[in-house]
From TrEMBL:
Belongs to the SEDS family. MrdB/RodA subfamily. Its main location: membrane. The gene is rodA. It comes from Comamonas jiangduensis. Keywords: Cell inner membrane, Cell membrane, Cell shape, Cell wall biogenesis/degradation, Glycosyltransferase, Membrane, Peptidoglycan synthesis, Transferase, Transmembrane, Transmembrane helix. Its EC number is 2.4.99.28. It is found in: Cell inner membrane; Membrane. This is Peptidoglycan glycosyltransferase MrdB.
């Protein structure tokens, strides 16, 4: 008699692909995604198809997360160098014959129009993690110097475009890798002290530094204007300071409980600029208040904590550094966006993860979370493997 074999159904084929996924990380992602959909509908229900498109972008990011999570972390090491080289080459192409929009040259046509700086958000920390993994156990001061050069090259090219927001994100991700690789504290403390002294000096000397016509040699005029507007938004309340002032009014008017779902007056009377993108935190704060903000901030803190916890359990230096970089990417995104909308940081055009509308940023974040899930999955599967004893 011919033997009969039970064929696995679709569910039995799919479930093994989710084996090893970190459940806490999945819950935190679902929590933030739910807040993002709620905020987008409330702020953008009368703004064309933003809510539907936002949901589509989330599904695309989830698919990318799922696919990337299937790849073992060791495979990422194989693409670190070529991906970094490709990203830097495309940044050079932008510099030479890029496409200019609204005064910024950030795009290049390679058959389709792309923004290469988005690649470096992942490629730069990936390259640095690969570099330190190769030098594990034999790190010298020169290795850290080379790492700084590897990071400074794409950051300088992105700032040249100019794109201060993206350059800060790439810089933060890269510096987190260098720090967690074992950068000595004697090299960390002096720049921090220097930054504190510089910010204090800037605030103290704001009256003459921000005089019209004054030139700052290290910054573009628009960047100087952003800093001066941050220090004193009432200098031009109906012009350059309008965004910051309206953002602070919206956040303050939300109070503890908020004005309610779809009931924000500052939001829907068009006082908040870019209410579905960069300034959606102001719209969310107005409608959901302090309690809503706490729910959002706790979600981001849990995401960062889980990323660092996954990093601590990783069995390879490469996995630890990549997980730390992803955690710091989300911390930087959230901190910079909330800070600029609240008036404590300059407006630099950084989206709020899961909340702001934007397909490219959502895809990049899905890729980053996929890398983090890959590290967690690898660690869990290694623990599940049977231990052989002699």
């Amino acid at each position: 008699m011919p033997a009969e074999f039970d064929k696995p159904n679709i569910l039995q084929r799919i479930l093994p692909m989710f084996r090893g996924f970190d459940p806490i990380l999945l819950l935190v992602i679902a929590w933030l995604a739910g807040i993002g959909l709620l905020a987008m509908y409330s702020a953008g229900y009368d703004h064309g198809t933003r809510f539907v498109d936002h949901g589509r972008n989330m599904l695309l990011a989830a698919a990318i997360l799922f696919v990337v999570a299937q790849i073992p972390p060791q495979k990422f090491m194989m693409v670190a160098v070529p991906l970094y080289a490709l990203g830097v080459a495309l940044l050079v192409a932008v510099l030479l014959f890029g496409i200019t929009k609204k005064g910024a040259t950030r795009w290049v046509n390679v058959g389709v129009v792309i923004q290469p700086s988005e690649i470096l958000k992942i490629a730069a920390p990936l390259m640095l993690a690969w570099w330190f993994h190769r030098r594990e156990g034999a790190l010298r001061a020169m290795d850290f110097l080379i790492a700084f050069v590897l990071l400074a090259l794409p950051v300088a090219l992105i700032m040249k475009q100019p794109d201060l927001g993206t350059s800060l994100l790439v810089l933060a991700a890269g510096l987190s890798v260098i720090f967690f690789a074992g950068l000595p504290w004697k090299l960390v403390v002096p720049p921090v002290v220097l930054a504190v002294v510089g910010i204090t000096w800037l605030i103290w000397n704001e009256p003459w530094l921000c005089v019209d016509g004054q030139s700052w040699y290290l910054l573009h005029d628009y960047q100087r204007t952003r800093v001066c507007t941050l220090l004193d938004p009432m200098r031009d309340p109906l012009g350059r300071g309008f965004h910051i002032i309206q953002g602070m009014i919206a956040i303050g008017s939300g109070g503890v409980w908020g004005k309610g779902f779809m009931a924000g007056t500052q939001t829907h009377l068009e006082f908040i600029p870019e209410r579905t993108t960069d300034f959606i935190f102001a719209a969310y704060s107005e409608e959901f208040g302090l309690l809503g903000n706490l729910a959002l901030i706790v979600g981001f803190l849990l995401l960062v904590w889980r990323g660092l916890a996954i990093a601590a359990k990783s069995q390879t230096l490469f996995g630890r550094l990549m997980a730390c970089a992803v955690a710091m990417i989300f911390f930087t995104y959230a901190f910079v966006n909330m800070g600029m909308v609240s008036g404590i940081l300059p407006v630099v055009g950084v989206p709020l993860p899961f909340i702001s509308y934007g397909g490219t940023a959502m895809v990049t974040l899905g890729l980053a979370l996929g890398v983090l899930m890959s590290v967690a999955r690898s660690q869990r599967q290694s623990l599940a493997e049977p231990k052989h004893t002699l």
